[in-house]
Specification:
242 residues; alpha/beta; Spore Coat Polysaccharide Biosynthesis Protein SpsA, Chain A; two-stranded antiparallel ribbon; 6 helices; 14 strands
Length: 242
């Protein structure tokens, strides 16, 4: 089985919807139980075996860089810095070039905590020879998250950015192969969306994309209501995030 030791965290967004309650810092540094959200997220993945992080940063990036520096809990940190907003796809493309690893790596949303078993994710990813595996969660009424439709074998057949009724939603945890970046129609510095543009391109070109459902805790701190609930979810209190 592949050993996954590196993770890219997409932490460059403006956090507009949260700006009314988190005004003095970028969203990934929003305090949850007195600690920046990004610390909680990185702690979890360090516990899963991640040893190095690349942070894709833009808005108020100097605060993130000053807080974490080059090392966090023994894990090396490097930064892909956006001078202008590049979107999630552009940020990922810049961060991928900072990776030294040659095998699969994680990509994480910098405002999402999702309890995913990395060993299980990697095992399924390898067994399916996937180019991209997306961790999914079940949601009763999906009016906020990107819906994902899969076949019985888990192969992804569509992504939907608009509100829908899909019972499976994108949890913002991805396992990617480096080959995914070969022959893309975008170059470093281009602005594009991971969710709307890159995923659509991969589906169109017939890439091996799979969705894997996990039952663990999930929270997206992008809106105030969920931000205020985040401490309970991250600390394992019995409250559904959906």
């Amino acid at each position: 089985m592949s050993q996954v030791t590196a993770a890219i965290i997409l932490a460059g967004g403006l956090g507009t919807r949260l700006s009314g309650v988190v005004q003095d810092r970028p969203k990934p540094l929003a305090l949850i139980d007195g600690r920046p959200f990004l610390e909680h997220q990185m702690d979890y993945w360090i516990g899963q075996g991640i040893q190095r992080f690349v942070l894709s940063v833009g808005y108020r990036r100097e605060q993130i860089i000053a807080h974490f520096g080059d090392v966090y809990r023994g894990c090396a940190i490097s930064y892909a810095q956006e001078e202008v907003p590049l979107g999630t796809g552009g940020g990922l493309l810049a961060a991928e070039k900072k990776l030294e690893e040659t095998g699969p790596f994680l990509v994480l949303n910098g405002d999402t905590f999702f309890e995913v078993d990395l060993q299980a994710l990697t095992a399924i990813h390898d067994s399916r020879a996937a180019l991209l595996s997306v961790a999914l969660f079940e949601v009763a009424n999906n009016d906020r998250y990107m819906g994902v439709q899969v076949r019985d074998d888990g192969a992804i057949v569509s992504f939907k950015s608009d509100p829908g009724t899909s019972q499976l939603a994108n949890g913002g945890v991805y396992l990617m192969e480096p080959q995914l970046f070969e022959g893309l129609p975008w170059q470093a510095g281009d602005k594009f969306s991971l969710e709307d543009d890159l995923f659509a391109h991969l589906l169109k070109t017939g890439s091996r994309l799979f969705g894997i459902t996990f039952p663990g805790r999930f929270i997206d701190i992008g809106v105030p209501d969920d931000y205020f609930r985040a401490a309970g979810v991250i600390n394992g209190k019995p409250e559904s995030a959906q």
